[in-house]
Amino acid sequence: MLMTDLIVKKRDGGELSHEEINFMIDGYTQGQIPDYQMSAMCMAILLRGMTDRETLDMTMAMVHSGETLDLSPIQGVKGDKHSTGGVGDKTSLVLCPMVAACGLKVAKMSGRGLGHTGGTIDKLESFPGFTTGISEETFFKNVNKIGIAIAGQTADLVPADKKLYALRDVTGTVPSIPLIVSSIMSKKLASGADVIVLDVKCGSGAFMKTEQDARTLAQGLTRIGRLAGRKCAAVITDMDQPLGWAVGNALEVKEAISVLKGEKGGDLLELCLTLGSCMLTEAGLAGSIEEARAKLEKTISDGTALEKLSQMVTAQQGDGRDVYDTSRLPLAPVQMEVPALEGGYVRRIEAEQVGLVSMHLGGGRATKDSEIDLSVGLVLHKKVGDSVEAGESLATIHASSQEKAAEAAELLRACYSLSPDPVQRSPFIKDIIR
Ligand code: URA
């Protein structure tokens, strides 16, 4: 088989066979197919598309390019969630303890990630002593005992995606739905959960800018998940402004805790209730969305979700009491308010730009080796639709110095657009694909 023939076949709109896709993915992962040929293939796929059969074959070939996680030592139904990523996205910190408190087993491998804040495991390291570097044995033992563990990825899952994604990034071939689907779903399938729920975000702060693109992606992801034998659902959500209030690692942990305590609601809680309801119904742990939602709400009112988080922190070498009293979590030395220069109604908050403010403060990583400051970031006080008076605070900046705080305050103010007239926010949950 020759890679050139496969490129020509796809370029001319043909359908690649199972064997051809395996040849291509194996050959590329092992370095036998060079980047220039794989780049041409990615571009041909971007322009010509792939059938579901091809996408499934590509996904499975990628799954088998490395190790896979066998979660069979864990009793019960295992659930996982994936988000296409957004600013202020601390969903896992709230959702995982909630569904675990309802009996779903959460065995989550998470990444550190690049961007405006760290990934879930960086955020969790805001708890003094907390470690995500636990052995596979401890990981399984914890999930069996308390129902939840979140660990840093140790196994070499989907090496094909690491190479392919880096290549797509520099060849203009990231925005191909079949390539995105195979990239995301190969990682989720290799992580072993029975139930996979996907949070597909759309809007200015998201990877998918339009609702239509987000819907096409969500449908592709759930179709391939089901064809691979997993229970799958997707929720399409608005990312036209940051999710929740806080952006920054320890600040997001504190926000997650206040949602779990029932002190805060808003879009973050709504998202967790929606994703959680899909997870519980797909897992057979609730008979209907309404029943699932009621169970999830109860985990907040009776404190069981917060207690789950506390148990996880203790089981991973932190002190579970830090969930109830957050005074030991990192706190930046400088806090500065960002007063509005004029009054009105918040029309827009540029999510991506807000993310850059957090980066500027040192809360995110520009390269995989950069250090992040867990204490810095910002907390919004006004969201789209809110009324603001001149001089009222739009947000609080948490910074390592006065100088950094002042720079960030200017940048953050520029993220806000106000309108003299009342603003209606568009629905946050756009659709649920089940
Ligand atoms: N996220 C992924 O993991 N893969 C893609 O291709 C795009 C977004």
End-to-end C-alpha gap: 39 Å
Shape: globular
> How many runs of DSSP E, i.e. beta strands?
13
> Could you give the order of the helices and strands?
HHHHEHEHHEHHEHEEHHHHEEHEEEHEE
**Helix proportion range:** 40-55%
Quote the average pLDDT.
95
Q: Provide the gyration radius in Å.
A: 22 Å
Number of helices: 16
Q: What percentage of amino acids are in beta strands? A: 15-25%
Largest sheet features: 6 strands, mixed
What is the strand arrangement across the widest sheet? 3-2-1-4-5-13
Fold blueprint:
Layout (H helix, E strand, L loop, with lengths): L2 H9 L6 H12 L5 H14 L3 H12 L14 E6 L7 H11 L3 E6 L9 H5 L11 H11 L1 E5 L6 H11 L7 H14 L4 E8 L8 H17 L3 E8 L7 E2 L1 H12 L5 H17 L6 H13 L2 H12 L18 E6 L4 E6 L1 H11 L15 E4 L6 E2 L4 E7 L2 H14 E4 L9 E5 L1
Parallel strand pairs: 1-2, 1-4, 2-3, 4-5
Antiparallel strand pairs: 5-13, 6-9, 7-11, 8-10, 8-12, 9-11
Helix pairs in contact: 1-3, 2-4, 2-8, 4-9, 4-10, 5-11, 5-12, 5-14, 9-10, 12-13, 15-16
Keywords:
13 strands, binds uracil, globular, six-stranded mixed beta sheet, alpha/beta
Would you give an account of this structure?
Helices cover 45% and strands 16% of the residues. It has 16 helices and 13 strands. The strands form 3 sheets. Strands 3-2-1-4-5-13 form a 6-stranded mixed β-sheet, with helices on both faces. A 4-stranded antiparallel β-sheet has the order 6-9-11-7. The longest helix is centred in the middle third of the chain and has 17 residues, at 211-227. The chain starts with a helix and ends with a strand. The mean pLDDT is 95. Uracil (URA) binds next to helix 9.
